Amino acid sequence: MPQTDVIIGKFAIKGEVLQVKPLGNGLINDTYKVTTAGDAPDYVLQRINNAIFQDVDLLQHNIEAVTRHIRKKLVEAGESDIDRKVLTFVPLKDAPQTYYFDGESYWRVSVFIPDAFTYDTVDPKYSRFAGEAFGRFEAQLADIPDTLGETIPDFHNMELRARQLDEAVAADKAGRLKDPEVKAILEEINKYKYDMCLGERLYREGKLPKRICHCDTKVNNMMFDADGRVLCVIDLDTVMPSFVFSDFGDFLRTAANTVAEDDPATEKVAFRRDIFEAFAQGYIKGATFLTPVEKENLPYGTLLFPFMQAVRFFADYLNGDTYYKIKYPEHNLVRTRNQMALFRSVLANMDYMKEFIAGL
Ligand code: GN1
Ligand code: MG
To answer: Are residues 17 and 157 in the same domain?
Structure first.
């Protein structure tokens, strides 16, 4: 692999590079912080996981269109400090494109946002801000003039995820299906699979629209300033047409779980109503465009995401851990147990959530 300082030298950055070191804890790409000398901005260098994002040209086209459009909206709204409220991608020194191919890997560089923080957990106050920010993010992109492609086709399509699990089961590549616990998880998933594909059915019936969504609204994909105000949404690789549940449900999947998504202590997993209520209030304020069917199904979206994530972790476990980065052999199984425990906890809250949403 070429040196990261050689790679960074291909981009039209300002300032002399002092240091490049790993940043963050994403499960897909490799991320580095690039520190420069003097007044020049610092940067974020990323190696794009090309096995997962197979069309990097389309990916960067999407991201450039999205950041351009949001920047325009911020200017029109008379916002200040815009460079901290939307990501800026840096072109190459000798070409306008915002990615570099070194013969093996794809790389990109964005400007590092100073004095900004990401969190792996939030309190209700931050949850409300996050809800409003994700709702606003979707609202800002509602009239984007560019056509955005699906950077991972059918990314949040539950029918596809269910099929992929069926394929993983049929192949049993890692020979893990003989474990009785694994079989029990599979049975539980199969029991709810059909119900969880409701979104795709509503879409086919013409009752549910697709909109431009972020599709990876993990709590740590949002930057806050020192006062807890949302600055911007990051990790834009999966911005694409989807159901609004993608952003609503995926945030609560991480933020409203009492523990991290890979905490082995499943008995501690529980769905936090305080985080849900604050997020839902914020989101409905920001997402001014919601149709009655979308609003009514937000509880379904909240239930769908722990389920879909469990199915994805579980399929990866059966496939021998080829998709998500793992830190130990059982990591994907531990994640699956955790997400199924969350699914059960959310399921027990369905009536309560429906009543709460109807009252907003
Ligand atoms: C991945 O890149 P990261 O870690 O923010 C994944 C999400 C999953 C998440 C689970 C492209 O997100 O869909 O929800 O891990 N991204 C992709 O932690 O598959
Ligand atoms: Mg991330």
So the answer is: no
pLDDT in tens, the chain (360 residues): 568 889 999 999 999 999 999 998 888 999 999 999 999 999 999 999 999 999 999 999 999 999 999 999 999 999 999 999 999 999 999 999 999 999 999 999 999 999 999 998 999 999 999 999 999 999 999 999 999 999 999 999 999 999 999 999 999 999 999 999 999 999 999 999 999 999 999 999 999 999 999 999 988 899 999 988 899 999 999 999 999 999 999 999 999 999 999 999 999 999 999 999 999 999 999 999 999 999 999 999 999 999 999 999 999 999 999 999 999 999 999 999 999 999 999 999 999 999 999 999
Q: What residue owns the CA closest to ligand 1's atom 17?
A: 28
Residue that finishes a domain, picked among 61, 78, 111: 111
Indicate whether 117 belongs to any domain.
no
Atom 15 of ligand 1, nearest CA residue: 27
User: Rounded to an integer, what distance in angstroms lies between the CA atom of residue 147 and that of residue 65?
Assistant: 9
Task: Give me the domain span that covers residue 157.
Answer: 124-358
Structural domain includes residue 151: yes
Q: 140 and 69 in contact (C-beta within 8 Å)?
A: yes
Q: Which residue out of 23, 25, 27, 161 has the highest number of ligand 1 atoms within 8 Å of its CB and is therefore the one to mutate?
A: 27
* CA–CA distance, 170 with 253 (Å, rounded to integer): 28
User: Does a structural domain hold residue 166?
Assistant: yes
CA of 18 to the centre of ligand 1 (A): 30
| Together in a domain, 231 and 301 | yes
Count structural domains, the chain: 2
Taking the centre of ligand 1 as the mean of its atom positions, its distance from the CA of residue 337, in whole angstroms, is 17
Strands (E), 159-316: 211-213, 222-224, 230-233, 240-242
Residue 118 covered by a domain: no
Q: Which of 111, 138, 160 is the last residue of a domain?
A: 111
Output the domain CATH number for residue 324.
3.90.1200.10
Is the CB of 261 within 6 Å of ligand 1?
Answer: yes
Residue 75 sits in a domain whose CATH number is 3.30.200.20
Query: For residue 29, which ligand has an atom nearest its CA?
Result: 1
CA distances for 79 relative to 75, 254, 277, angstroms: 6, 30, 28
